């Protein structure tokens, strides 16, 4: 695992965005197109901003998926990840070859099947991910399902995950946060050829410590990233503050 620690979230995000752009260019150059996964949430602001500003990417040769979406939340809601990606990515780059958004307002089982068929036809070159305060990867809260082979699954969100959404300002109270979501599975994320993980902020410090310094366990879902051969982890000083061995 490549680990980069920068002074602040902006620097970490910029570096992550540049790395992702480079990997996308490489995929297009080597095989003529690229399939990417995008994460959402406040941890991805700087990364996506940098990625949209990068030059030399033929976006018409890029297919996009994303990690998760709340079940039953309308796309007009400010916490909708479809809305997030439309505003922060899709509208800022030239038209992509394909955009595959999770429709949380559709039948969840049918939506998982639809997305699984699509992603099985498009092996993922670059996945952008984050880590939750509870250590989740996508919406795979602990204890995460490491065994499910399906690309997407329906999950129940734990209280810590839902409270994080309130703390970040997406909802007014925990009672407003949906309890269910559609999430990309851990196995599907790990099938990505390259993973770029951006985790800024003091609130993520314990999760980062558990991810890197615990043995791989579904009680610390993001710890599975230790097993990925091409994972790039971008931290800032605050998110890395609890690490015993600080790498730059």
Describe this structure in words.
It is a single chain. With 248 residues, the chain is an alpha/beta fold. It has one domain: Rossmann fold. It is built from 7 helices and 10 strands. It has helices spanning 9-31, 45-53, 81-88, 108-120, 159-167, 186-190, 205-213, and strands at residues 2-6, 34-38, 62-66, 68-70, 98-100, 126-129, 152-156, 180-184, 194-199, 231-236. The chain has a 7-stranded parallel β-sheet with strand order 1-10-9-6-2-3-5, with helices on both faces. Strand 2 (34-38), helix 2 and strand 3 (62-66) form a beta-alpha-beta unit. The two termini are 12 Å apart. The mean pLDDT is 96.
Low-confidence stretches: none
Number of domains: 1
Alpha-beta classification: alpha/beta
Average pLDDT works out at 96
Q: Per CATH, what is the topology?
A: Rossmann fold
Order of strands side by side in the largest beta sheet?
Answer: 1-10-9-6-2-3-5
What is the gyration radius calculated from CA atoms? 17 Å
Task: Give the CA-CA distance, first to last residue.
Answer: 12 Å
Count up the helices: 7
Q: What's the SSE pattern?
A: EHEHEEHEHEEHEHEHE
Q: Strand share of the residues?
A: 15-25%
What is the name of the CATH architecture?
3-Layer(aba) Sandwich
Based on CA inertia axes, which overall geometry fits? globular
Oligomerization state of this entry? single chain
The CATH class label is Alpha Beta
């Amino acid at each position: 695992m490549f680990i980069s620690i920068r002074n602040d979230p902006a620097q970490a995000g910029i570096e992550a965005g540049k790395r992702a752009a480079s990997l996308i260019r490489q995929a297009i150059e080597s095989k003529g197109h690229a399939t990417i996964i995008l994460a959402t949430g406040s941890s991805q602001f700087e990364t996506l901003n940098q990625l949209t500003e990068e030059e030399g990417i033929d976006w018409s040769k890029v297919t996009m998926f994303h990690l998760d979406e709340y079940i039953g939340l309308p796309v007009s809601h400010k916490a909708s990840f479809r809305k997030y990606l439309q505003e922060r990515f899709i509208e800022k780059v030239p038209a992509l070859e394909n955009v595959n958004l999770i429709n949380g307002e559709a039948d969840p089982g049918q939506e998982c099947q639809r997305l699984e068929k699509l992603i099985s036809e498009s092996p993922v070159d670059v996945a952008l991910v984050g880590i939750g305060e509870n250590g989740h990867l996508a919406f795979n809260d602990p204890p995460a399902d490491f065994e499910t082979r399906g690309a997407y699954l329906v999950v129940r969100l734990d209280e810590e995950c839902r409270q994080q959404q309130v703390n970040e300002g997406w909802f007014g109270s925990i009672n407003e946060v949906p309890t269910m979501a559609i999430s990309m599975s851990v196995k599907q994320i790990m099938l990505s050829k390259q993973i770029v993980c951006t985790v800024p902020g003091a609130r993520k410090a314990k999760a980062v410590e558990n991810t890197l310094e615990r043995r791989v366990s579904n009680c610390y879902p993001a710890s599975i990233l230790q097993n990925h051969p091409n994972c790039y982890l971008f931290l800032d000083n605050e998110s890395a503050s609890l690490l015993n061995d600080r790498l730059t």
